[in-house]
């Protein structure tokens, strides 16, 4: 158990809908990262937050947004869902944002868009 | 931009034989390299990291990795493979500019046969 909690574990929804994925980082971790893992594109970095502030953006679509709350949990919002958004979404956390810190991953949310 | 490459989609090895999963990196400045493993339906688990110092890094589950600066490689190794090592392995590099997000390779599936 990495200490990173993601809910829900599975989500099935229809095209055009909006969903929210939730992540609770490990106790004491200030950085939260979101990744998307799909069969054809591997593990893609979406976005990073540090202590409530957005720090880095990767290949995140405009239909997607995220935030980190004062209690450090984070939510990833996916809207106007398309079939191609079906993937495994991972959250990871680390103590800081420094070079030497490894990130710890949650078990992921499997999103299926039908 | 920093990147890692995993040239093999899949590596097959017999149980008891040594295994190597390859990773090469491209960074400006000092590299900060990581290996993660992903078991089916699980999140990524941290195995080991290279920051500085000895070129041979020891990690979890008997794995080790050899850092080679001249060849810009960071290959994952294990002297004697187990069937339970079968999983997806990811090499990653932490960017040493900006907010130092982790950038992952495309992953290598390791299949250990009995």
Account of the protein in words:
- The complex is a heterodimer of chains A (114) and B (114).
- Chain A is mainly β and 114 residues long.
- In chain A, 0% of the residues lie in helices and 53% in strands.
- The termini of chain A are far apart.
- Chain B has no helices and 12 strands.
- Chain A binds chain B through residues 2, 4, 6, 33, 35, 42-43, 45, 48, 50, 55-56, 58, 90, 92, 97-100, 102-108, and chain B through 32, 34, 36, 41-46, 49, 51, 90, 94, 96, 98-107.
Properties at a glance:
heterodimer, A: 114 residues, mainly beta, 7-stranded mixed sheet, 4-stranded antiparallel sheet, 11 strands, B: 114 residues
Biggest interface pair, counts = A-B, 26 and 24 residues
| Main beta-sheet strand count, sense and barrel state of chain B | 6 strands, mixed
How many strands in all of chain B?
12
The secondary-structure element order of chain B is EEEEEEEEEEEE
Mean pLDDT of chain B: 91
User: Which word captures the global form of chain A?
Assistant: globular
Rg of chain A = 13 Å
| Uncertain spans of chain B | none
* Rg of chain B (C-alpha, Å): 14 Å
Categorize the overall geometry of chain B.
globular
Number of helices of chain B: 0
Structural class of chain B: mainly beta
Helix content of chain B: under 10%
* Separation, N- and C-terminal Cα atoms of chain A: 31 Å
Relative strand content of chain A: over 45%
- Give average pLDDT of chain A, whole number: 91
Structural class of chain A: mainly beta
Which stretches of chain A are poorly predicted, pLDDT < 50 over at least 5 residues? none
Main sheet overview of chain A: 7 strands, mixed
Compute the number of helices of chain A. 0
* Percentage beta strand of chain B: over 45%
